[in-house]
Design a protein that fits this description.
Bound molecules: nicotinamide-adenine-dinucleotide, zinc ion
Oligomer: single chain
Number of strands: 13
Number of helices: 13
Structural class: alpha/beta
Strand content: 15-25%
Shape: globular
Order of helices and strands: EEHEHEHEHEHEEEHHHHHHHEEEEH
Radius of gyration: 20 Å
Length: 361
Amino acid sequence: MKTLKVELGSRSYPILIGEGLLGDPELLRQHVPARDVLVVSNTTVAPLYLDTLSAGLRPRRIIETVLPDGESHKTLTNVARILDVLVANRFARDCTVVALGGGVVGDMAGFAAACYQRGVSFVQMPTTLLSQVDSSVGGKTGVNHPGGKNLIGAFHQPIAVLADTRTLGTLPPRELRAGLAEVIKYGLICDAAFFDWLEEHMEELLAGDPAALAHVIYRSCQIKAEIVGRDEREQGDRALLNLGHTFGHAIESATGYTQWLHGEAIGAGLLMAAAMSAGCGLLSAEDVSRVKNLVARTGLPTRIDSVSPQSALEHMRIDKKVQGGRIRLILLRKIGDAFITADYSEAALDATLHEYFGLAA
Ligand SMILES: NC(=O)c1ccc[n+]([C@@H]2O[C@H](COP(=O)([O-])OP(=O)(O)OC[C@H]3O[C@@H](n4cnc5c(N)ncnc54)[C@H](O)[C@@H]3O)[C@@H](O)[C@H]2O)c1
Ligand SMILES: [Zn+2]
């Protein structure tokens, strides 16, 4: 097992990464201190892992809430269901909410924990690659609104993150690839050596090799923990974690959040961020082709045929990163060196959107 720490003063917390953590009573004793525990999961993950976790948590009082599976269920209604269960069982402020599932479960359980009695403790047990490398760390919680994704939420840090890598054994390959897009993102933002490592080990990762996966989870969490420790509320550097996301969110919203997984949209978003950076005279052609090759080898989709460039631009304009009417973008000077800017060439943006969106010529 490997351990990291998110340094946030009195709200610091450990990230534990290893095989079989879910069923380890000693680890659970250390990291889930409460007597009353609400475990939130969904209809896909609960049949696979909830019994193991609950057995490890005994003899605490354990209540289970199993929500429907899917991004379309990341709603205030389902958070209200979690809150209803907490109230109905007379949980006090010293209870703990445990999220067992991917980012959807984690975001909702975390938001319910942030709201219940103005904040109760919360533990993340992420079971997808995406949630193990990204969403379980950093304290962003929330739900979607018909008017937009993640529009309602709160910062609420967990007291621990327990990433059981064995759970990835049941993850569908498409979800694994989507998680790898966020992993590639970390290399591009700030770690060229990690990007090299991914180029060398992509086949092992796609085959689900436990040691290779454990390595990328560790390094990704280390990078995210370091950035969150510096800038918890995204006043500065944390925005770098949105590399590829302004383009990616445009893909997700223009396709109605049904066709593209988040990580898939981010994979294509990384390609567009690279193309855009080259168009602005920043990134070399060689680096652009390395990004293209790695995303393609990951098996992620690389074109958005069903959305026009005009529609994509409109969707980019309603992203949260817009300030004073100008879209801010994360661009690359080279692999491993990203920065945020509102100062870029409109012609390069237009060319990038035309390269990736719309029916291929
Ligand atoms: N809070 C943050 O900082 C942050 C960051 C990135 C993404 N997110 C959010 O995370 C969500 C995406 O997370 P995700 O990619 O984990 O999606 P998800 O939670 O929908 O999980 C993907 C699918 O895998 C299933 N699944 C989960 N674990 C499994 C396992 N071990 N075996 C088999 N199936 C399993 C789920 O039931 C689901 O069908 C989005 O809502 C996104 O907005 C949040
Ligand atoms: Zn993301």
